[in-house]
Amino acid sequence: MKVGIIYGTKRKKATEALIKWFKSSLEKQEIAVEAKKYNEFTDFNQDAFIIGGAVYGTPLKWGGSVYPGLLKFLEQNQKSLENKPLATFIVCSKMKKREKYMGQILEKLPYKPITQKVFKGYLSEKDKDNFDNQKQIAEIWINEILDKL
Ligand SMILES: Cc1cc2nc3c(=O)[nH]c(=O)nc-3n(C[C@H](O)[C@H](O)[C@H](O)COP(=O)(O)O)c2cc1C
């Protein structure tokens, strides 16, 4: 079993930390992992995918959006994802808008994911401690994904 993790972020902060946690949880259970930013992801030979990214409201033209490059990538690669189980996640701070943000990913996918997860990201280092508490949530989510595969 091999899992592909495809993500979008413009910073080396919360999303990248989550990807590391996802990867180590999967590898602990002897699952092979290919984790790459969407623009480095070329080979879709994995058995399942975890797909997600960070939400930003600036530049203003993005208007509060999952990283636009990731959304475009999903639109362009729908065919490659067909018939593979996938799980989606977002990293944001405005929890009230989480359904809107997740919807931006869902509308680009060929079918409904097996599970969806919202993580609360952080802006600056002073908020990072609260964010790090989500490592356990990330691990539990990975187990939920594996149970469903
Ligand atoms: C420039 C900027 C704009 C942001 N705008 C939004 C927003 O409109 N809505 C939201 O829910 N979160 C917003 N956030 C919070 C981010 O989603 C959060 O900081 C998350 O950790 C970003 O992922 P990253 O740490 O991988 O960059 C913004 C963050 C930054 C840095």
State the end-to-end CA separation.
10 Å
Major sheet description: 6 strands, mixed
In round numbers, the mean pLDDT is: 95
The CATH top-level class label: Alpha Beta
Order of helices and strands: EHEEEHHEHEHH
User: What is the tally of helical segments?
Assistant: 6
Superfamily at the CATH H level? Answer: Flavodoxin domain
Chemical compounds bound to the protein: flavin mononucleotide
In which range does the helix fraction lie?
A: 25-40%
Pairing-aware structural class of the strands and helices?
alpha/beta
Oligomer: single chain
| Approximate strand percentage | 15-25%
pLDDT under 50 segments (min length 5)? none
| Dominant shape | globular
Strand tally is 6
How big is the Rg?
A: 14 Å
Description:
- With 149 residues, this protein is an alpha/beta fold.
- It has one domain: 3-Layer(aba) Sandwich (Rossmann fold), CATH 3.40.50.
- Helix content is 38%, strand content 25%.
- The protein is built from six helices and six strands; from the N terminus they run βαβββααβαβαα.
- Strands 1, 2, 3, 4, 5 and 6 form a six-stranded mixed β-sheet that branches.
- α4 links the parallel β5 and β6.
- It is globular and about 35 Å long.
- It starts with a strand and ends with a helix.
- The mean pLDDT is 95.
- It binds flavin mononucleotide (FMN).
- The site of flavin mononucleotide has 19 residues, from α1, β3 and β5.
Topology:
Blueprint: E1 2-8, H1 14-28, E2 32-37, E3 48-56, E4 65-66, H2 68-76, H3 78-81, E5 86-92, H4 98-106, E6 115-120, H5 128-132, H6 135-148
Parallel strand pairs: 1-2, 1-3, 3-5, 5-6
Antiparallel strand pairs: 3-4
Helix pairs in contact: 1-6
The structure holds flavin mononucleotide.
Residues 9, 11, 13-15, 54-58, 64, 91-94, 97, 121-123 line the site of flavin mononucleotide (FMN).
